[in-house]
Specification:
The structure is a single chain. Helix content is about 20%, strand content about 25%. The protein is α+β, with helices and mostly antiparallel strands. The chain has one domain (about 5-85). It has a three-stranded mixed sheet, covered by helices on one side. It has a two-stranded antiparallel sheet with strand order 3-6. Strands 4-5 form a two-stranded antiparallel sheet. The protein starts with 5 loop residues before the first strand and ends in a 6-residue tail after the last helix.
Length: about 100
């Protein structure tokens, strides 16, 4: 592939919890996804539950991408992953 401007790096596939990657020449940004681990986060203010969690880090070229836009992008990705709004597309329900 050539001519890309955005890269997704799955450093978690090798067991890395989190990683900050350097944006390669010719790219605008890199989203790095760490390994998925079970953690006990607090939902709301009173409920603790075991959840699969992963660190996301976004590295970007400040000459091309405004920091506020990058933060909004990462927040949107986080929200989509937490809502699992894509689950039906990834795991179709088998017919009985």
């Amino acid at each position: 592939m050539s001519g890309a401007t955005f890269t997704i790096s799955d450093t978690g596939s090798r067991g890395a919890l989190f990683n900050t990657v350097v944006v390669p020449p010719g790219q605008a940004a890199v989203l790095s996804i760490g390994t998925t681990v079970k953690r006990p986060p607090v939902d709301g203010q009173t409920v603790i539950g075991i959840r699969d969690m992963a660190h996301l880090s976004l590295s970007y070229d400040h000459r091309l991408v405004d920091g506020a836009d990058a933060a909004r992008y990462l927040t949107t990705v986080k929200s989509l992953l937490e809502a699992a709004a894509f689950a039906a597309e990834l795991l179709p329900v088998a017919d009985s």
